[in-house]
Structures are given as structure tokens and as C-alpha cells.
Amino acid sequence: TGYTWNRDLFPDPKAFIAKLHQRNLKPALNLHPAEGIHDHEEPYAAMAKHMDIDPETKVPIPFSIADPHFTKAYFELLHHPQEVDGVDFWWMDWQQGTASGLVGLDPLWWLNHLHFYDLGRGGEKRPFIFSRWGGLGNHRYPIGFSGDTVVSWESLAFQPYFTATAANVNYGWWSHDIGGHMGGIEEPELYVRWVQYGVFSPILRLHCTNVAFHERRPWGYDAETDQLVSHAMRLRHAFIPYLYTMAWRNHTAHVPLIRAMYVENPHDEPAYHCPDQYWFGSELVAAPFISPADPDTRLSRQVVWLPKGDWFGFFDGLRHAGDGFQVVNGRLSDIPIFAKAGAIVPLAANANENGTVNPEHLEIHVFPGADNTFDLYEDDDLNAHSLTPIQQQWSQRSWTLAIGPAQGQLSHLPEKRSWIMHFHNVTSESVTVRQNDIVLGLLTDYDETTSTLQITVNDVKPTDSITITILTSDKNSQGQSLSKLNACQKCVQAFRMDTWVKDRLFKQLPAIVEHPSLLQEYGLLLTESQLRTLSEIIFEAGFLRTSTRSSENEMILMWNNHETENVTYRWHGYVDNLLQRTKFQQGPLPKFGVFEFGDESITYHKGNQTSAGRISVGGWLASVPERINPALIAGLNAIVQFEIDDETAHLIFDNGQATITNSAHLQPSVTITSQKADWLDLINGDLAPEELFLSGKLSISGDMNLLLQLVDVLQVTPQSLYRTGKWQLKVQYNDYLTINLD
Q1: Residues 259-288: tens digit of each pLDDT
Q2: How far apart are the C-alpha atoms of 568 and 565, rounded to whole Å?
Q3: How far apart are CA 167 and CA 184, in angstroms?
Q4: Which fold has domain 1-145?
Q5: Predicted confidence band of residue 475 (pLDDT cuts 50, 70, 90)
Q6: Is the pLDDT of residue 718 over 70?
Q7: What's the fold here for domain 617-719?
Q8: Is 248 exposed, middle or buried (CB count within 10 Å of its CB: 0-12, 13-18, 19+)?
Q9: Which helix (H) or strand (E) holds 165?
Q10: Is the bond preceding residue 405 a cis peptide, omega within 30 degrees?
Q11: CATH code for 341-476?
């Protein structure tokens, strides 16, 4: 890239840009400024003269952004003329490292800073750039470009985690290469899923390259792909009022659009183990599909953790109970998006137009279950702005939504607009609509398939107020839920299987949901993934083997929302590789549990706490007698002394009893000696006993035969810790489905 248009492709660049502006599009040009300015560039002569170089020499002008003399010409001669011709902003595609000519100055950080404020000179434009990551502090200069992306499911799967955790350093406005453009294998399904994720990411930007097979135009694929991608892109455009309000919230309250689940739920341990989902603004949780559909179920699978409270499918309005995991099985057209109880989500009603003009037709999607307030932000693209309050009050028998009047400067708002309200998951007995306290006639529509009531109010001025009151039916006060039967039916409809068997299974589903053991009949007729899909729905219990995303390591997540005893697990793993000691762990699947695989160990924890924290030497010594099984020391008489730096204690075994004394013994049977730092690593699971022993950091003297006998008695490392290597996990649903992992 450079500073000269290819006149064969763009014979009249200024006219081309003007046409883009007529379509409400704002073009940017991509920069690789480190290449400097060469003699083929149109502005070379002017730039050379400024730098006291004879243009006739055709000597390249080196890039030197730390030089104020160069920097002045860099902007005034290279960039400002292009902006006069209509270029709206610049894409800093820096890939050349940190050398700048000034010690300690990262050129990309400095470029971002300069370009950001240069674009805002004169107050005619808001400062705005598009750049690669410039390091900590670059949240000040949005938007970010995450770099060249390989076309693969692995790339897509990493991006939700990457984007959500970037918010931890307040870098919220990431733009990814949607679809990728670096090699890989192109698949229509991957392309669709990537665009769907892009809809619910900070910036949706399709990206291609000069390779004919990296197709990013929706119509470049089959008819289904064209339809689904086009729909997704229009959906994204409809979300602009919501996104723009979240951008204002980010600016004023410093809350990024996308946040990891633990940001809002820091005391819920499951929030730290669901890396593929995130908060999307203040009202929604997104968990896009990031893996291909199973060939037997013909459905994509996503496991979603929902915090306490009621949640609603954004597209179908159906209620889901929180405080647990949900398995979402979806066709290619589905996107798992959940609205919190009381959610208020504004959308543009006409998403077929380019640009971000404040819409004349607004849709407001509201969900039952809680009171809420949403201040809709709109502006003139520069300074004047307004906030329109949207408030809802919800109870078991009534639902009230109040809109307006708008506050602030109002000249940028349409003189009149239509408000189209969508009340999700409701059965109403009566509806009253008031505009400025005047009762209006009703313009309504009701969708029975989604239980959504639509109410339209036209010709509303910014200074007007609207109040809608709905009296709801008792039977619908908590919202309609997706029944297990309906969920199973939707899945079976998609299954790839013999049609006669499918028909018999479908008809028997009501009985199977009530008596899951009936699935035994289909043990030879359904595949493991098909049986697992139905079982996860019926029992609301299952497991997920997935990447932690934070590294290349894996985790196995397990859940059992209702703690049923009909779903069990059995884990078998090593606790000591040197002595070949293993341990079993089994029982009903926990409400929440996770095995986390590290480089040296596998840790397990369940419930809402990871552990009691790092244990001290004194705390470990005091707890040793409590953790010894009396049956293992019956008839044993021995004294084990621990010498851990300045802490010495001896453990007395006396015919089935164990006591600890904080002092030295004159004649111990076995003495174990170690430095405190090393022992702390051992008892907290950072090191294995064999590692400590072989490295000479653990000294053992005395009766070695007795020590070997005590190996099974003394649990030195945490009980939830296993060593890496061989392991097995078996999950069993009743007696009809067993799934083995290793």
C-alpha cells in the first residue's frame, strides 16, 4: 500500500469516494507507513522537497515518525489531501516492530496517538482510527484490528474469548477478519457461523484478500448461505441503536460492550469456565456457535451458563431458568442469544439502508420478569446528543412500559417517528396505550408461535411520552418455557437416521421424556451423539470437553442442574507418576464441576469455589490427622517427623489413631526434611512428590519400608489434584448410555 491510486482500477478516485458517500458509506484507506515514500508515489516530489531531498535523485524517504519535521509533512502532504478528497479515516496496518529511532517509543502507539488527534483537528470530525494493537493504553484510540486470521474453526473459536478478555484492559472495540483470509479451508458453514459471531462482536467487518477462493460476498456461495448471511448483516444494522447506546455507556461509564461473564458475576465460579460466551451490552448474553454441526444430529452444539434469574431466548422469547448450564442445539439459521429478565433492547426497524441516520422507525424489544431502565442515546454525529428514557415495571399481573420524552438537544431527532414495541413471552387480557395521557386506539399484532405482542404507535414527537399498560394472564405470569418435549422434538426432526425409526422415536418422545429408560430400546438405533443430545435435554446434565482458550490446555466441564442421581461419572487418574499410584473419583454428576488440565497437573473442583486458597505449612500439618482414613492405620505404630525449615512436628500413629504434635521427637521412625518454599509448592499442588525427591529438594531418612506403607495413608498433595498422563472419565445416563473419555 502507498499514497497513489491505481488509475486503471480507480480512474477518478474523488468521484468514486463521492459515490460511496451518496450511499452513506465512509471509506478508509489501509496504510503500511514503515515502507517510507518512494519515487513512484504521486506526493513524492513535495515530500522530498520538504525533507531537503532532490526529487531527481529518486532517493526513498525513510519513515521517521519520531522526527517532528517528517511528521508534519507526513500528515500535511500525504494524508490531508486525501481527506480533502473524501477519505474519512485511516487503517494503521503496522507490522514492523517497535523500532522508532527514539529509545522507548513504540511507533505504533505513537502513530495511533497522532492519527487519532489529527483526524479530530478543527472539531469537524470525531477522532477515530483503525489500527493493530498498540499496547496498554491504546483503548483510548479505537478501533482495533486483531491481525491476519487463518481460515479455520479454531480461529473462530478463539475470537469470543479473545474479545471478551480484552475488556479486562478496557480494550473493547475489536475488529476481526470475519471469515479469515489466510489460507485454511473455505466452508460455507464456517463462513455463516463467523458472520453470525460478527453480528454480536464489537465491529462486523468482512475481510478478503487477492485470492479468488477467499469469497466474502454473501451471494458468492449457495442460496442458503446468501440468505443467512444477508439476514445476519441486516440484523447487525438493526442493532445500531443498541450498539450506539452501549458505545455511549462505554464512553461515560467505562463499561465495554463485550465482557467476560465473571465481570458481572465475580462470585460465581462457573462464570470463569465458560470462555465461549459473553455479555453483549447491558441486556444480552451471546454464545455464538463456533464449531461445525455434528454429522448425525445435523445440529451445532453450544453449552451456555446462565446466571441466577430468568432468561429468555432473544429470537423465540422462551424462558430459561438461570443458575445452571443450558445445552443449545441449533440449525444453521440459529444464533444463541439470551435476554436477561426485564431486558430492553432497541433496534432500527428498517435495516435495509446504509448509514447510521437516527431511524424514523424504532423497534423496542422488552422481556418480562423484572423492572428495568434503558436510556436510548442518539446524536448528530459530532456534539449535540439526546437521551430518551425507556422504563418498564413488571409484576405478576401487569406490565407497564413508558417511553420519553427525550432529554437534551433534540434537533438531530426525526420530527416524528414510529415506535414498534415487542412484548415477548406474554399473554395479555387487556392493553391500554397513552400518548401524553391521551388514550389511543390500538394498533396491535400477536404472534402465537412466540407469544409476542406487537404494539405500534405512530407520529410520536421527541417531546411526547408513551405509556403502555398490559394486564397479563396468571397462567403466563412467569413466561412460557421451552418444554423438554418440544426441545427433543426439534432435535429429532434434524437427526440423520432411518425415517421409519425416526417416526417411531418421535411418536414415543412424550413417554421417553417422562421415563428416560425407554431410550434403551434405541441403543442400537441411535448414535452416541444422538442419544447424548436427548439425554442432556431430559436430565439437564452433561459434560463438555473443550479448550480453556487461555492456553492450549483443555478442561472438562460437568453440570447437573437438578442434581439427579440418574447421571453418574467415574474418574480414574494418577496421583503419583513415580510410584504409579492412582485414585478413583465417582458419584452423581455434580451440579457444577470441572477438571482443568495444566502442564504438570490436573485439578478438580466443584461447587462455587475453586479451593480454600493456598494452604500454609502449619495449616497442612494441623489437618493431616483429619485426612487420614482410620482403616488404613489400624494396627500401625509409628512416628513420622516433618522438618520444614523452622517448623517441626511429629505425627504419631497409635493403633488406628493419629495425632500431631508441634515439636521434635527424639526417635522418629521416618524423618521428612524440606525447605518451606518447596514444601508449599508440594502441598499446594505446584510440584509432584517425585519431582521434589528427584531434584534433591526432599530428604527422607529412616524406615523406608514403613514409608512405602505410609504412601497410601498420607495425602500430601491436594485431594483434588491429579498428575498429567493417563486418565479416564466415564459418564453414564441411567443404564442406556455410557460415554468414555481418555
Answers
A1: 999 999 998 889 999 999 999 999 999 999
A2: 7
A3: 29
A4: TIM Barrel (3.20.20)
A5: low
A6: no
A7: Nonspecific Lipid-transfer Protein; Chain A (3.30.1050)
A8: middle
A9: helix 153-166
A10: yes
A11: 2.60.40.1180
